[in-house]
Design a protein that fits this description.
The protein has about 220 residues and is of the alpha/beta class. It has six helices and eleven strands.
C-alpha cells in the first residue's frame, strides 16, 4: 500500500513508522524543514518538506499513485484542504483526517473528500485501523493487506525487562520492534537502547499473539 501522511508531529510520525514497519510505502510530509531534518535517518520512510496544502507538493509526494492519504496536522483547515485535494484532484481511494476541534467535526465528510474522520483523542492503533479500513482485528490491529499484526505493550516498574537493553529481549519468531515511544516521542529501536518504565513499544509480527509479546517483556 502506498501511503502519504501529512503532518510529522508525534501522531503522524508514529502512524508513518507503524505503516512502514508493516511493509507499506510511506511518505511523510511536514511544512517545518527543521522537523524533517530532525527525522532524517531516524525513521524508515520517505520524508518531504513542504506544504501539503499545495497541489504541486502533494503530486511530488506521490499523490497520483497513493492508496491512502492521512491528514494529521494540528490545523483543521489544513486537514480539510489536504483531504479535498487528495480526493478531488488526485482521486485517492481512501482519505482519513484528524479532527482537532470537535466543533469542526461536521465539516469532515464526503463534501471535503474525507472518508474517515478521526477525533484527536482517538488511540493510535484505532486511528490506523479506521484509516486503512482494516476489519480483521487481532490483538490491536491486523493490516489485512500486509498480513501482519501490530501489537502494543508497555514497560512498567514491575516489568522484568525494565532496565535491560532491547537486544536482551527474546522476541517470538517473525517479530520486530517498530518503534519505542518514550516521553511522548517515537525513538529508533536501537538494540542497545535500555528499556525503562513508561516506554511504549509497538511491534510487528507475522506469527506472535498478544500473550506471547506480553510474556517476552513482562
Amino acid at each position: 500500500m502506498n501511503v502519504i501522511v501529512a503532518g510529522a508531529g508525534r501522531l503522524g510520525t508514529q502512524i508513518a513508522q507503524v505503516l512502514a514497519a508493516a511493509h507499506n510505502e510511506v511518505t511523510l510530509i511536514d511544512v517545518d524543514d527543521d522537523r524533517i531534518a530532525e527525522l532524517e535517518g531516524r525513521i524508515p520512510v520517505r520524508l518531504v518538506a513542504g506544504d501539503a496544502c499545495e497541489p504541486a507538493l502533494l503530486e511530488h509526494a506521490g499523490a497520483l499513485t497513493a492508496d491512502l492519504v492521512i491528514a494529521t496536522t494540528g490545523d483543521d483547515e489544513d486537514n480539510l484542504v489536504i483531504s479535498l485535494l487528495a480526493k478531488r484532484q488526485f482521486a485517492v481511494d481512501r482519505v482519513a483526517a484528524r479532527v482537532n476541534d470537535a466543533d469542526n467535526a461536521w465539516l469532515f465528510d464526503g463534501r471535503w473528500g474525507v472518508d474517515v474522520a478521526v477525533p484527536a483523542a482517538t488511540p493510535l492503533i484505532s486511528l490506523i485501523e479506521e484509516a486503512t479500513g482494516a476489519t480483521d482485528t487481532v490483538a490491536l490491529l491486523r493490516l489485512s493487506k500486509a498480513g501482519v499484526d501490530v501489537i502494543e505493550t508497555a514497560i512498567t516498574a514491575e516489568s522484568r525487562t525494565a532496565g535491560r537493553v532491547l537486544d536482551d529481549v527474546r522476541l517470538p519468531e517473525g517479530t520486530v520492534v517498530a518503534t519505542i515511544v518514550r516521553d511522548g516521542q517515537p525513538t529508533v529501536p536501537d538494540p542497545a537502547l535500555r528499556l525503562r518504565p513508561g516506554d511504549e513499544i509497538l511491534l510487528v509480527s507475522h506469527n506472535a499473539n498478544e500473550q506471547e509479546i506480553h510474556a517476552a517483556f513482562q
